[in-house]
Write a structure and sequence with these properties.
The protein is mainly α. Helix content is 72%, strand content 0%. The chain has 10 helices and no strands.
Length: 258
């Protein structure tokens, strides 16, 4: 298989794998651990396939866009490595012989925080590559329709992001993930997909904002898109508060999601 096609396959598997990793109700504990092992192997392969990016790190001029891409890539890699280490520390099924090299409560809480940062950073990372993927789309009508759908989807994703307590997890505010096992599997996967889509959208708009040759009109449209998505997310949060809320389980029955 050509290296370019291999990279594409690995990227798709990483994206799907991360969605499943953030859907603990779907996989359960044992599969969650084995998926983590698989994700680690894919991430190592991803780095090998993108070795040219590392070779060029200290070459050429750093534009704002390149600096942002490098920062996000580095943060994602660091978060992923630390998440994997914390996951190994808690392993019961996959690699129990490597577990408990740090205090369990610390490892669990770090794993919870870092895994959610991985999810956000992965979305931004993908989003920064979206404009290059869409270069082949010539139809202005298709681009406008896609932009409108993306704004609405991102708004819904930001609402789910807030409703499912992601800010608490990201900023180390809770020691456990509160998992609602009453949710249907399609709903769990859809929510994870919406949250990912929100950050992919923000990443794509950030690319336009930081691109050296981007027109002023396009930058304004990107700012408008982010603001509209945020407004939709806030509007849904306020409109649906009390009718759709997270089911918080007691801490003793809660599990840390990855």
């Amino acid at each position: 298989m050509p290296e370019k096609r291999t990279r594409q396959v690995v990227d798709i598997l990483l994206s799907v794998g991360l969605l499943l990793m953030m859907s603990y109700q779907v996989t359960g504990e044992a599969w969650h651990e084995w998926l983590g092992i698989g994700m680690t192997a894919l991430m190592i392969l991803h780095q090998i396939l993108n070795r040219k990016w590392y070779a060029a790190l200290f070459k050429g001029r750093y534009t704002p866009l390149r600096a942002a891409q490098t920062l996000i890539n580095a943060a994602l890699m660091i978060c992923f490595i630390l998440t994997a280490l914390c996951g190994v520390n808690m392993s019961v099924h996959a690699v129990p012989f490597l577990s408990e090299f740090m205090r369990a409560s610390l490892g669990r809480r770090l794993h919870l925080t870092l895994s959610h940062w991985c999810f956000v950073l992965m979305g931004l990372h993908l989003g920064l590559h979206v404009p290059a993927m869409l270069k082949g789309v010539r139809s202005q009508g298709a681009r406008r329709a896609g932009w409108c759908v993306s704004v609405l989807t991102a708004g819904a994703g930001l609402w789910v992001f807030t409703r499912n307590r992601y800010p608490d997890y990201l900023f180390y505010r809770v020691p456990f993930a509160f998992i609602n096992y009453d949710k249907a599997i399609p709903q769990v996967l859809l929510e994870a997909l919406l949250i990912a889509a929100a950050w992919v959208f923000i990443g794509a708009q950030t690319h336009t904002l930081l691109a050296h040759r981007a027109e002023r009109r396009k930058r304004l449209i990107s700012i408008l898109g982010i603001l509209l998505a945020a407004a939709i997310g806030l509007g849904l949060t306020f409109a649906l508060t009390g009718s759709l809320t997270v089911s918080a389980l007691p801490e003793a029955d809660s599990l840390t999601a990855a």
